[in-house]
Model the fold of this input.
Amino acid sequence: MRPFLPIAAVLAVLAAVPFVVHSNTTLNFLVVALMIALAGQGWNILGGYGGQYSFGHAAFFGTGTYVTAILQVRYGVNAWFGFVGGIVAGAALGGALGALVFRSGLRGSYFALVTLAFAEVLRIIASVAPITGAGVGTLIKLDLGIRTFQFQSRAAFYWIILALVGVSLVLAQLIERSRFGAWLIAVRENEDAAKALGVDASTVKTVAMVISAAITAAAGCFYAQYFLFVDSGIAYGTWISIEALLTPIIGGVGTVFGPLLGALVVKTLGEAAKLLTGDAPGLDLIIYGTVLVLVIWIMPRGLIGGLASARKLMRREAPAAPTGEVRHG
Amino acid sequence: MAEPLLVVDGVTCRFGGLVAVNAASLGAQEGQITALIGPNGAGKTTLFSIISGFVRANQGSVHFAGQNVTGEPPYRLARRGIARTFQIVQPFYGLSVRENILVGAHLHHRKRDAALAVADQIGRDVGLGEMLDRAADQLTVAGRKRLELARSLATEPKLLLLDEVLAGLNPSEIRDIVPVIREFCRRGITILMIEHVMQAVMSLAEQVFVLAEGRIIAKGTPTEIVADPAVVEAYLGRGAAARLGARHGH
Done:
């Protein structure tokens, strides 16, 4: 149980926030940050633990969003089932794409390019297909209630997205300490060496992509319920692909808390930059971009990696630095 | 003699116009240490890569424990009990020594605790007991070779393919690691090793195959091999190992 204590502590603190903070603007900000954290955790499973850097996680986010919305609007499906349907559809897409890409042995930048192209193709299809509402988009009718998964209170949405983030944290922790996780990390570190040790690399990567896609799709499903509107630019736009990979990279790639920390920091930074520059258009983006570059430059392993190295450095200063190998022969 | 654990029969492998391995056949007897030697560029590592499934042969077959395993992917061969080390060591640099060995141990142990116990035991067996918590990239060359050995041993193989585990080590490090290899053979692991360090081949191997320009040109006990004119020729002719000729050529 011990590895799950930090997760429980973080969730408990975050769950208390709505009791203290009543401002709708702040809660709205936190809901969006947590949604990005969830999408980022999805990316982190495949990219952080598996080393497969996807530039097209919008494909999964958007599929979650559209399936949730379309099932409700066009087929009259209950919102909760629509939500689950969105996750399942995202996972299925992840499995299909993973099987295709990994069996054909695409790695590194080729993998990144294929995922990017795939998301773009989906965006273009969604912008013309009748079922998605084409250019107009799809609007979910406002109808407050538990059955329709629509709430007046921001706090309710906040707790729902926090619960989803909690599930994703537990999932990441479970993966990290499982055989599957050990194999996934081995593939990231050195695929050939992993294969020689009996790891079926392409299956491991495909399974990781299914889990990854499901989590990011869940963020998309939440988007649909929270904003009640979706069009192709929102669902499959590059913005979400970038947010999903930026948050874990800033926070700490391949760590349980990386995406959550990254999302909170990145989103705060974005807001702060906006406040600072007032009305000057684009200036906030320049500040935002500069700070991100600096963070990656100074802490290539993200905030969590940076903190870990700092702690190690402090500890090493006290006793004498350990010398090379103890045994020489 | 019983059917060897590993039988390589008439394997040929071409890379474009280059014939890296040419109708090579060899066998590794169960419970023994077999060595594969030969001048640089003879095709030894290519032959290893074929046996472990990383490279496909154009012709010929590989049988393991009586079954035809030609062309099977590496992970499946590993599950059958064939483990290999890499000539250029391939540690998972971002992980600790223990986590490196753990990946191998997970092959037959799903539970993390059981796999960790196996990993720690094997780490100690190869002399990395004090390094288990160290990051893999902090190890010396000798340490990395040991780690390479430990990781493949953790898969609990029947056959272990060692690709120059002694290369780059100094004499005292070699003296340290040779007993480790012998000990694992004594525990029942069949070993096929590529090695340039003749002193180690002479003391470890019971059977030696010599590969030159992709062909097996000689086989026999270490003493027979060093006296074989064809072998001396292969090395001397290329001028690569004149000292070998000087030591054994008269």
Summary: The mean pLDDT of chain A is 90.
